Fold this sequence. Notes:
The structure holds 2 protein chains of 2 kinds. By secondary structure, chain A is of the alpha/beta class. Chain A has helices spanning about 50-55, 80-90, 105-115, 125-135, 150-165, 180-200, 210-215, 235-240, 245, 250-260; strands at about 5-15, 25-35, 40-45, 65-70, 70-75, 90, 170-175, 200-205, 220-225, 225-230. Chain B is mostly helical.
Amino acid sequence: MNDNILLETRELRQIYGKGRDRLEALKGVSVKVHSGESIGIIGLSGCGKSTLLRILAGLETPASGTVQFRGQTLDFDSRKSLRDYHRKVQMVFQNPMSTFSPYMTIQTYLLESLRSFGGLEGDGREQAVALLKHVELDETFLDRLPHQLSGGQLQRVVIARALALNPEVILLDEPTSALDILTQRAILELLSQIAKERNMSLIFVGHNSSVVRLLSHRVYVMETGRIVEELFSETMLQDAKEPYTRQFFPENLKKVVYNY
Amino acid sequence: MNIWIKKITENKIFCLLLTLNILLVVFFLFAPQFAPNSPIEIHADHALLDSSGQYPLGTDQLGRCFLSRLLYGGKSSLLMTIGIVVFISLAGTTVGIMAALAGGAAEQIFMRFLDVVLAIPSMVLVLVMVSIFGNGIVTTTIAIMSVSWITYARISHSLVLEFRESNFIKQAHMGGVRSVRILFKYVLPNVFPHIIVVATQDFGDKLLLLSSLSLLGLGAQPPTPEWGYMLSEGKQFMQRAPWLLFYPGFLIFIHVIMFNLLGDRLQDILDPKET
């Protein structure tokens, strides 16, 4: 499996602010994702997992360290390098509503990446319908504006757009945290099914171990900018050594809720 | 685009207000055609006459037909106001968006400069400029333009800042969307609805500002008819000929109210969450 590394970070560091306000958000993070493998990243709020995801998305330049895709180092200063990278790596953000321009119809939104990368056929309506079909939505949504859709429907549209370029990796920043429990389940099942069908890698960030485990083969546990543990999803409940990691397990999450 | 046409046609009150506003403006732009007499011809022996067949709304202190002056005055007042609002909204918005997209030190310096200018009441700035460059309708219009665009620059700048770091712009970057398309498809559609609403409501403000300056004797100069200037002239004869104040005052009031109501309705229509 080692020869088949799709995405890899080496000693990623990220620093925000200066002087008194200096914050080291990442303190040398190295993760590997193999082709077709999905990984989860869990940690408390502020542990640096979203920063890591933004760097992996090419939206932020790290203070030091590298991101490699299929052995090629991503050049954060090169538009071409980022453009090539974004053909293969897409992202689904936490709050679906925030990823829509309120004045853009769903059809235009869905076809934006295809239009930019030259994959648009005609007016693209058929392509848009096909994309919606993947996420179990129909043609009637195409002419609507974002506020006319529910949170779950919006997140499905976001996923459909991410699929438009047929990427090899989809980064998911707590994609279900803004949704109710039933919609969460439906979205997670959909993502899992799509990943399997397309042999696509998912990098899922969250703080609920059962949700992360559902989608991932391996899980990285992050604490204050560092990876503290790396576990296989199937055996993580038995293998976890760090007390920090155990607090994300379902029975302990319940305790936290009851104690609160 | 169909969504917006549908929203506009479904909002009956907006359609009514829009029609009335267009009719008002068009009427006054072509009003000189209907003027029964010359607006500047003086008849000293006809001064301050009450309404009659020859002078439907009476005459002013110099015996000029008041209806004709109102109709001619409407054209210059409305043309100047429309010109001012169109210019300041376009110029201010362009500058504001460019400053926000440029970022860095240039943006900071420029915006602090605008803060300083905004701290001085615009009426004072206009008065200073008019006193330096001289009275007159053109000078007043240029003076108002040169201080009023700043409001639009501030509004558009803060709107762009609001979503410059937003997820939908980030996602556009990830989707390989080019900067020009981001500007026209993502930035402008989110800025223009706000600007259009502000501009519509500003129409009334600018008409009043222009009239106030004319009232002070700084805008239109005799014998040019202009509503604000006509008010200024009429105030000396308030008791003997109240129509000299009533008619231009009423027309300014009607236009300000109509454009404010249109702005309110436009705000509802352009809000994508209003169905």
